[in-house]
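Give me the fold.
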Amino acid sequence: MQALVNIHRYIGLSLALLLVIIASSGALLLWIDEYHQWRIPELREELRDLEVKPAALAAALDSAAWPVGTIALPREGLPAITLYHLNEGQSFHAADDGSLIAHWLPLHSVYSFLFELHVHLLAGEPGHLITGFAALLLIVMVKSGLPLWWRRRKVFKLRKWRPRSTKTHELLGSHAAQGAIVGLGLLLVLLTGAGMVFNQQTEALLKMIPGSTQELRPPAVDIEEVSGDINWPAVMASARQSFPQAAVRMISLPRSPDKPISMRLKNPGELHPNGRSYLSLHPSTGEILGRVDATKTGPGPSVYNLIYPLHSGKTGWPGYRLLLFIVALGGVYLAISGLWVYLRRASLRRRNRRLVNIGKNT
């Protein structure tokens, strides 16, 4: 049992600050749609029809300040066309006519800053890997803490989740009780977070489940080089014909003249807010070059497609986002209270050693 105590203690101490940063930024990101609506009045109106006309897409691209890589179509909570630019900037455009609403460069907005802090620790890909390995270690920490609480559950009762004072024993009891309350939620968030960082390994592992489809995206193809604008009416008509019940969620534009358009769609029954069904289309004719229906890819991919919505709170389930918010705040409190208890105990031990040494020398 002492081994569990040491594992829990020293992983927690090593990663306490990191957990505070990741959990607090994640908690704020849960409410980013509400923040955008508060900051930008044009986003407060609800759209009766989320389907965007081809002319609005073309107009949005024409009004873009920088080259565009990906288009996100309007959704509940964000009734605007979102353009993701190749310089990592973003912009909002009106869903009806594509006119520019707002645009910003990386880290020039609250959302961009929080996202980069949460996902990359403001350190790019190295920071992304650090968050992934930290999540794996924190999973071990939480799994070691739960049996420690269970063993002493009669002492650290759940009703002690709120400390009555800042005394060490009160904070320790609160730390243990809150860990027991939010522990399973933390495990879910950490597992899904690690799954997104190490997405290729996670996808490969889940595809080993019997009955899983191996190809989750259309194969890469080359086309004859095309010039001119994208034929949006033909492209959108092909998407509606291929997936009559689906909503187009994201469109990745060709990076070169010999590449097709890649489109993501959300079919009925898909939990992922951006959908995991794919189409590959010719930008001039709308010809379908590849197709993947996420509702028919088997059990492994179905589990994989749950990772992002479960982690981000974008499930559409009433109360789930609030539950994640409580879990995130619980993670922040556990990190701070655990570090505080350790430092106070260490300070007390040092003081006692000094008193003992003074007594020996007198």
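The chain has two domains: 2-206+317-347, 218-294.
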